[in-house]
Structure formats: C-alpha cells, structure tokens
Design a protein that fits this description.
Elements lengths: L36 H9 L12 E3 L5 E3 L2 H22 L4 H8 L8 H10 L1 H20 L7 H16 L5 H21 L3 E4 L1 H8 L3 H15 L2 E5 L7 E5 L41 H7 L11 H13 L5 H7 L4 H13 L3 E4 L2 E4 L1 H4 L22 H10 L4 H25 L5 E5 L2 E5 L30 E3 L5 E3 L8 H18 L1
Antiparallel strand pairs: 1-2, 3-5, 4-5, 6-7, 8-9, 10-11
Helix pairs in contact: 2-3, 2-5, 4-5, 6-7, 7-8, 7-9, 7-10, 8-9, 10-11, 12-13
Amino acid sequence: MPSPVFPRQRSEEAVSTQPGAGRPGSSAALGLAGLPHAAADLILLGDLGGRYATGAYSRLAGDGAVRPRERRQAESEHGHRITAAIACHVARAGGTVEQLTRLLLHPEHEGGRHAQVIALRSGHARAQGYVERVWSSATALVESTTDVASREGVHEDLARLRECIETTAWRGERGRTALRVLRAHLNFAQAAGGRLHFASERQAAEEAGISRQTLRQAYELVLKPGGWLRRLRVGYGTEGSTWYLADGPADPQPAAVSHDQPSQCPPDGELGEWTTPETDTGADVDSRVIGLLMGHDAFAHNALGSSALMVIGALHARPGQTPGELTVSASLSRATAYRTIARLEGHGLVQRSGEGWSLTTQALRGIGNSVPEAVTALAVEPEPAVVGWDVLAAACGTAGIGAARHALHAAERAAYRATLAALEERRSPARTAVVDGRTVLVPGPRADEIPTGWRGPGGTVLDPITGRPVSGWQVATDGRLILLSPGDDRSYDELVAAHTTALHEWETAA
C-alpha cells in the first residue's frame, strides 16, 4: 500500500527527508514528509506516552464517583482519540481523506490500530465510513482554529480576540456572567501562551468570582452555543479540562430559557429600553478592568453585581458617557443603567463629568487609566492593593464569599483525589469494633491469604473440615495461597511461546 506524501510545511515542523535520516521504518522512509515529528511518531508507534488515555479508561457515574470502564469500551475510546488526533494532523498538513485512510489502514502503523480492528471485524466499508466521519469533525475543528507561528503572533491573536470580546454586546444578566467566564478563560489563555489552555471548573469559577453551577450554565447556554468556548477534554485526577477559545459569532444569541413563557414583557426597542442588533454597533468595554475586578467579593451577585462591572469597564474605556450611551456601550437596558449608576454613585465610585459620568479616584485605585487619552476626575497612579473594595464588600455583606468558595473547592478537590486514590488502591471500607468502650479498627482479611489453621506441614493446604491435605494447592513463603498446575513446570521460553500462540488464536477468532 503506497504511503501518502503531504505538502511541505515549515522546516522546524517538517520531518527530515535527507538520505539516511531516521531509523529504518521511520516517517521519512514511509513517506510521511510534511507532518510534524509528533504526528509521525503517533502514526507509526501509537500513543506510547499515554497522552490520549486520560479519562478513556474511567467514567464519572451519576453519583459523582469515578467508575472504571469495560476493557473493550476503554480501548475503543482510547483508539478513537488517537484516530481523531491523527486526522487533525493530516488536516493541518493539507491532506485528504484518502491519504488519512491509507495511513490508518496501513498494517505497520500502530496509530491506526482502531480503524484496522473495525475493518477486520465489520468490513472495509464500515471502517471507511468511520474514517470519513472522523475526518469531517477534524476538518471542521481545524478550519475553526487559528494558526500562529510565533510568540508575537500569539499575543496579536489574543489581542484581536480580546477586542472582539470587548465590542460584543453581552445582554442580560446571563450574558454579563458569560463575559466574566470568558474573561477568566482569556486570562488562562494569556498565561498558557495560546488559545488552547488547561483549567478546571473550580479554577474558572474562582477567577470569575461566581459559583461553579453558574459557570456551567453560562458555558452551556451562552458560550458553547455561541461559539466562544469549547471544552475539548474533561479533566481527570489532578489534570484540568482542556479548553479552546474560539472567535464566536458577531452577535451571540443565548439559548432559550428553561420555562416556556417569560415572567415579564420583553423590553421595547423603540422606547430605548433595550438595544437591538440593528442599532447596537457601539459596544465597548475595557475587559482588562473587568478581569481585574470580577473576582472580588464587592462584585458578587448580592453586592454590586455584573452590571456594575460593565459600567465601570465602559467608563474606563470612554469616560463622560451618559446613561443613554451606557445602554449601548455596556449592553444594559436603560433602567439597569440608571439603577447601576445610582448604586455606584452612592458608594462614591462614579461622579458627574459635564453631562455624563466618570469614575472617581476611589474606583481608579488599582486599575489606573489604560486609555492614554482618557480624562478622569483625577489622574492617579495604579496602587498595588485595593483596600476600598474590601470595605465596600463588607458594607454589602459579601465579604468572605470568595474565601469560602475557595475553601469549598479545596475540600472538594481533596475528597475527589482521596476517592481516586482509594479506587486505584482498591481499598475496602473500614470496619470497626467497640472493645471496652473504645472503637478499634478491625483489619480486613486479604483475599490472597489463608487462615493459619489451613496451613499444613511442608507448605501444604489442609481441608478445614477433614483436616487432610488438598492436592494441587500450596502455601507460599509469604503466606499466600497458590495453585500448582502442570503448566508451572514449563520454562520461560515455553511460556513465551504459549503466550504468543494464545494471542494469535485470540486475534484470529476476533
């Protein structure tokens, strides 16, 4: 079967094709030029490091406990992940589905073992259909991602994404909460150096200053259907989930609410109660300020809330806006804009600036003026600590919410890791007994050990009823029970040959 050759990529990613380069059977010898080294090794050798095995051999049950999957189902999940990864590599290299099929069905390619097993069990047509479905998903994923070639390109790409986020209208409380979640993942992406990053739900909830349940709702109802954020892989153990930040649509539409009828009449766009997609072209907030303040207790749901974050972000980007202008720039209704400005004025965070409103010195502490041409009441330098927000959180009665949430998440992490450790060690539930008023731990018997009364002379095993030795059984020197059989007399070479024969018979039957 001929091996496909892909278009050449950058020299630092292409496989060397010089004469004598690589070992026999390497990617260059098999004609895989144009693929990265990691992709070529994955195709030839398979997932040797177990990179795609995380979470494939276990599942999360309805009660929150981790349950092991059946062996065949786990291997199928692991093989599907390897196949999907190879398809993404081929799609990025400019290959075709025919080239992917030849790569996966090549008998010497360990990475295509899953597709080869499907072809062996269900026929070539079934395997071809499976490869085409995987290819369709891989091409859709590659087309929706952005290729960056350098660190400067990463920063420029994230800056463009941040500008797109800041100029998008995030309507309603659900939209403003989604902005906080998206900004938290943008912080993680900037620290990771790309749109692909790793974070757990608890980490994102702490960063955004919201509960874990609220974060899930924002992701499922706004960010995921809107094309802003995708979870590529669910975290397991000490590893966080794998996320990817996408560009999203020009105007994200939230998913339908759970109830059939709204509890109140929708806002009237002609009266200026709400901005419409046709007239809403001026959304503009400073998401950097929102990212700095959203995790503070002063902006919890029962305190200033997300609407205050939007007003502060909008006034920080462009001071002197009127409430009517804030309805567009901060994506608020007119009533919410007036109500939020009155609340911020009561706490001394905004003040009148001509006909509009601007941030006060107290609100600018710790964030400063990010816009050079911004004119505020007083030009102050950023301060390292923001003590005023702590006082405001205490006045609103939300002080300590973030610390309590962090402690709850730490306890959940400890319980989850303890459960995983117990499952890995296969611990049995502890049993106790009360002796003289004291609770004493009773050690559980081991399945591979036998009672002392069953042990006979010379390592024999005695029948507990008749007291006679039982043929075929022996007590090892460590006290464990072993079964002797004629096969135990075979040499090492004979055992290897028997194992090879049994494996061949199994594969032939399959």
